Amino acid sequence: MTTTDYPDLTAAAARTVDDLLPQARADMEPLLESGRRAPLPSVPDGPPCEPAHSAAFLAANPVAASPIDAPAYTARVDVPVHELGVVDLLTAYRSGTTTPTGVLAALRARWSDPAMSGGAVLAVVEGADDAAADSERRWSDGTARPLEGIFFAVKDIIDVAGAPVTAGSRTTGDRIAVTDATVVARLRAAGAIPVLMTATTEFACGAPHNARYGAVTNPWDRSRWTGGSSTGSAGALAARLVPLALGTDTGGSIRVPSALCNLTGIKPTYGLVPRTGVASLSWTLDHIGPMARSAADLRAALEVLAGSDGYDPAAVPDATGQQVRDGLAATGALGPVSLTGVRLGVPTTWFTELCDAGVLAAWETVVDTFRELGAEIVPVDIPEAHRLHDDVTIVMTCELASNQEGSLEKFALYDIGTQVRIARGLVPSAVDYLRSVRRRTLAQQETVRAFDAAGIDVLVTPGIGATAARLSDVTMEIDGVRYPMQSIVGRNTGLFDYLGLPAVMAPAGFSEGMPVGVQLVGRPWADDTCLRLAQVLQSVTDVHDHRADG
Predict the structure, then answer these.
(1) pLDDT digits (tens, 9 = 90+) for 425-453
(2) Cβ contacts of 367 within 8 Å, gap of 6 or more
(3) d(Cα 6, Cα 357) in Å, to the nearest integer?
(4) Rounded CA separation 301/272 (Å)
(5) Which pairing describes strands 221-225 and 264-267: parallel, antiparallel, or unpaired?
(6) Where are the beta strands (DSSP E) in 293-408?
């Protein structure tokens, strides 16, 4: 789509879907016509690319041993407890220098302060005091579980039993979740404690100015947005309200706010983390993953979250899930880090084309750091990236419209961002939608072949093309020119939701005082390799430790 195809996301919502359909048709027709000019070969001679072939392609890929050693992580001990990350806290609990109840008190004082929460917190989950006391007992009697006493926030489309989970929408009323989503249940079983329900855009696709709850402000600049639909999870992490949060990523909503708030987040390989109990935006693009302030923390969380639950039909094969968990469980030895023998790809097109000079400079600095550590840097491009970007738009809007079809009589209650996307999803024909779905398998094959041809282990791209959007007009600035936010935020991220490949966003530096990120993308099931590379970066730099207040 062109940069002029996006609506004014500060505008008032429409009364009916018919009010938006003429503009929706005008917006979508260029994408659809482009696809119609390149139909897939007809059966019986066409390639095998039914929708099920995409998941089969991912499942058929083996889990390769990571070529990157997991660097040792040195826990911080000389900072206030609200600054401690997941691994820091586990170390502190183990040594007895702090306790879960003490940490809970410190965090509660922060999330109850509106100036710190910035709209990120929607509700406090009940039961935290009892859970913290139980964790304290377990640390004392030697029965601590892997994430014992780690407090975490949950995006408001992920069910937490007994908590209000509204998907950020006025259409859902005062919904209370009956059971935990699989990801919440797994964290609880590992000893982690849910404490906050955090803001999302409506159904993870609406406007920054949420019609029900308002906007979440970025702790780095309260006149700007945190970015992406995992907006409250990012705001809570960046403001040090929690050390860990759950987010979702359908076009970049874990990675975008991670880049714009100086956080580390992972969109796992499609199917690695179950979606059970999570409100669907676009079922073939939705990914669930953790967000934190370091790659070491994400490795600890993802080890708990990964693997089939027997309910998600797109779940990873059991043996594959176990292999990924085994890699995540590996710990490194102390000593100098090296990337000798590792080949990293860098793009020459698409990912660098709509990027501010400050974003490109930070990316180039990260690439230089990897080169200095011994990595070989080679050019690699994603085949037909522009077409894939269009396919993401078609698939996402069609699946959203299907998911929300039963509530179209409540159309006036949706915010303008959700309304526009639903209207666009009603425009494509079934053939248009299925063409974009069918192309996914072929695109996955071509992308992995490109990785193989270059012999790369990870693709390293610029993160988001600009720093955080202004809330006043929902625009982003690239080299002095302002663009509608929606034309920039998902450009470098959405392709990998479509391809299902693992992608990590890590802090890369700053542009005029605002954070920017770098994206690390791997083959299917190379989640740990991407996280190890981010951990290597964080072992030799301190960008990820910078916080909004200094």
Answers:
(1) 999 999 999 999 999 999 999 999 999 99
(2) 344, 346, 377, 460
(3) 24
(4) 13
(5) unpaired
(6) 343-346, 376-379
Cis amide linkage into residue 114, ω under 30° from 0: no
What is the Cα 87 distance to its own chain's centre? 21
Q: Model confidence over 29-43: pLDDT tens digits? A: 999 999 999 999 999
Query: Angle at the Cα of 444 (from 442 to 449), degrees rounded to 5?
Result: 95
Tokens of 328: 């995540």
Contacts of 344 (CB under 8 A, 6+ apart): 367, 370, 375, 376, 377, 378, 456, 457, 458, 459, 460, 533
Query: What is the rounded CA–CA span in Å between residue 58 and residue 284?
Result: 13
Helix (H, G, I), strand (E, B) or coil at 352: coil
- As given in the structure block, the two tokens for residue 477 are 């600035």
Structure tokens at 332: 């490194």
CB distance 436 to 37 below 8 Å: no
Q: Which residues are catalytic?
A: 155, 229, 253
Strand bridging mode 514-521 / 503-511: antiparallel
Q: How far apart, in whole angstroms, are the C-alpha atoms of residue 494 and residue 181?
A: 24
The secondary element (H helix, E strand) that includes residue 549 is: none
Residue 65 · residue 525 · CB < 8 Å: no
Contact call for residues 151 and 144 (beta carbons, < 8 A): no
pLDDT at 5 over 80: no
